[in-house]
Specification:
The complex is a heterodimer.
Chain A lengths: L2 H40 L3 H6 L2 E2 L4 E2 L2 H32 L4 H12 L4 H19 L8 H25 L3 H9 L4 H12 L1 H17 L2 H6 L17 H7 L8 H27 L1 H5 L2
Antiparallel strand pairs in A: 1-2
Helix pairs in contact in A: 1-12, 3-4, 3-6, 3-9, 4-6, 5-6, 6-9, 7-8, 9-12, 11-12
Chain B lengths: L1 H26 L11 E7 L4 H14 L3 E8 L1 H9 L5 E4 L5 H7 L1 E15 L7 E2 L1 H9 L16 E5 L4 H10 L10 E3 L2 H9 L4 E6 L8 E2 L1 E2 L6 H6 L5 E9 L4 H11 L1 H9 L3 E2 L2
Parallel strand pairs in B: 1-2, 1-3, 5-10, 6-7, 6-8
Antiparallel strand pairs in B: 3-11, 4-8, 4-9, 4-11, 4-12
Chain lengths: ~290, ~280
């Protein structure tokens, strides 16, 4: 065996071990949470944990308000982010592919690098007083505020996936529309959007997973109240923020176990989302 | 003139050199006691103590790598019980041990800080004074409009702390007398976060450690007493407690040195740095 081949094999095995290790870590984390959440699962208290309110003084450790809070914040932020991202992606890849569009895309790329704590901090000092003044005196820290900031966080991810899927539409399709005398907007509506459907689904689902997994923005801006939120201007707590807030010092209290239920829920939710992307996102989705 | 300048040129570096040479010495003043020591100190109990304990432990362990300090939580009751039964060397508590506990375990009690908690509102809020009953009703959600208290016709936004917070414990115990806190209360994660939340919300009410009150927020007088460090020290402001470290018998060896360190200038600086009030 030549030395070059041997080096090749060593490198190959190195990569294989690295890949194996990262897969193993993901599986181990799941098992870890399962084992620590097991007492709750086995005793059948899991259903009460999922449906009851959080009242530690009364011995109730339900995470129902957090599930509602998480879903409300995630869907509201998608409601802002999806049209915005679609618009920016269309502008960047179809309507103004050069000049302003290219500049915009650079900004979007830059946005992916902003840490969430910066968004949270800016939100506390700028967005909270603004929302309070314009919309609701009670809604300074609320689902609404957090969802606006979260939308800003997930936009870059979605925009980049959308532009990517627009750009993968074959050149000949563009030329066909041009030959027929179609405008860029017609090209977008009748050719690109239908062709890039799978990419749109993939972007949407990944944006959703990102919104669900984020902790800091909700922790800093959503208010973290443990009541089930009654409106979009109510304070709410997400599952991730709940994990951050309840740091039980001992290892066998109910608080501690319910944390692992929250972790499991998040794990299952995001895994389900990824599976959805693969299923409906087709070839495009399979890449994630 | 030129001579004078020359002298300055020589003197200045010399001064700087002296400063650098003595700086480590001056800094490790309180830590000298641990030189040539070896062993372990186990601490458990009150959670409010933990930041100070951690910082003190970090400095001691950096100065002398042979000394190990372990710190566990558990709460005041656990701290007293564990030190009494000889499981740990120092048991922290956020209340003075009772006469019976002191007798039963022959405890020595050291109070090295005071933790005072003050009610705060936004600077733009005209309500600057409350009765204790009103405070309890605000936090339980019974009073939910500032108009009732002489302010604007606006809902009251309550800000609460997370469950691990020692500040929350004092406030709930002594300020609200263990009364209910509305489920709709917002929850923030630190004294700093509480300050920025209240500073940015005109209709907010919250509470912070007295050491954290500054011009960005407005303190509220409770039964006519403002939450100031002076009022906490004199005992006029009631929402406060001592932070205690207890040992079984007279503290000896490393344990004694650790307690002494808390009372040195450096130890008390750590205390004030973490928002508590120093006792010396």
């Amino acid at each position: 065996m030549s030395s070059g081949k041997r080096v090749d094999r060593i490198i190959e095995q190195g990569f294989f071990l690295a890949a194996l290790w990262s897969v193993l870590v993901a599986v181990l984390i799941f098992l870890f949470m399962l084992v620590l959440g097991l007492p709750l699962l086995r005793s059948g208290q899991i259903f009460s944990a999922l449906t009851r309110p959080w009242l530690p003084q009364a011995g109730l450790f339900g995470v129902y308000p957090m599930i509602v809070g998480t879903l409300a914040i995630v869907f509201l932020s998608l409601y802002w982010a999806f049209p915005l991202s679609l618009g920016v992606a269309a502008l960047v890849s179809v309507i103004h592919p050069r000049g302003f569009g290219r500049f915009l895309k650079k900004i979007v790329l830059l946005m992916t690098a902003i840490p969430t704590v910066v968004y949270g901090f800016v939100g506390v000092f700028l967005l909270v007083p603004l929302v309070q003044k314009i919309f609701s005196p009670q809604g300074g820290m609320s689902i609404f505020t957090a969802s606006l900031m979260l939308a800003l966080l997930i936009c870059p991810t979605m925009i980049l996936i959308f532009t990517d899927s627009f750009e993968s539409v074959p050149r000949s399709y563009h030329e066909a529309v041009d030959a027929l005398g179609g405008s860029p907007v017609q090209k977008l509506c009748y050719v690109l959007l239908p062709c890039a459907r799978q990419g749109l689904v993939a972007g949407l689902v990944l944006g959703m997973a990102r919104a669900m997994g984020d902790t800091l923005i909700a922790l800093m801006l959503a208010g973290n109240a443990v009541a089930v939120p009654g409106s979009f201007f109510a304070s709410a707590r997400t599952l991730t923020a709940h994990i951050a807030l309840v740091t039980a010092a001992d290892f066998d209290s109910m608080e501690f176990r319910t944390i692992f239920v929250c972790g499991l829920l998040l794990y299952v939710f995001t895994s389900a989302l990824i599976v959805c992307t693969r299923h409906w996102g087709g070839e495009k989705g399979a890449r994630f | 003139m030129k001579k004078c300048f020359l002298r300055l040129q020589v003197a200045l570096p010399l001064c700087l050199l002296a400063l650098f040479a003595f700086a480590p010495l001056a800094r490790s003043g309180g830590l000298d006691a641990f030189r040539n020591d070896k062993g372990e100190i186990n601490v458990s109990g009150g959670t409010a103590h933990i930041p100070v304990m951690k910082e003190a432990a970090k400095r001691i362990m950096t100065a002398n790598r042979e000394v190990r300090v372990t710190i566990a939580g558990g709460g005041s009751g656990v701290g007293i019980k564990q030190v009494g039964e000889g499981l740990v060397d120092i048991g922290n508590s956020g209340r003075a041990p009772t006469e019976q506990e002191i007798r039963q375990y022959s405890l020595h009690v050291f109070q090295w800080a005071i933790d005072g908690v003050g009610v705060v509102v936004n600077k733009g809020n005209p309500v600057k004074s409350l009765k204790k009953e009103e405070l309890k009703k605000i936090f339980s959600g019974e009073i939910n409009n500032w108009k009732t208290l002489g302010g604007q016709d606006r809902p009251i936004n309550i800000y609460n702390r997370d469950e691990a917070s020692g500040t929350r414990e004092v406030f709930w115990e002594k300020g609200l007398e263990k009364g209910n806190i509305s489920l709709k209360a917002n929850v923030v994660v630190s004294n700093g976060a509480m300050k920025s939340a209240v500073a940015n919300d005109l209709y907010a009410i919250g509470y912070v450690s007295v050491g954290h009150i500054d011009e960005s927020i407005a303190p509220v007088a409770l039964e006519g007493v403002l939450p100031t460090i002076g009022n906490v020290k004199s005992g006029a402001h009631k929402i406060s407690r001592g932070l205690y470290s207890n040992t079984k018998g007279k503290p000896q060896g490393l344990t004694g040195k650790f307690i002494d360190y808390l009372f040195t200038g450096e130890g008390q600086k750590i205390v004030t740095d973490h928002g508590f009030i120093a006792v010396k």
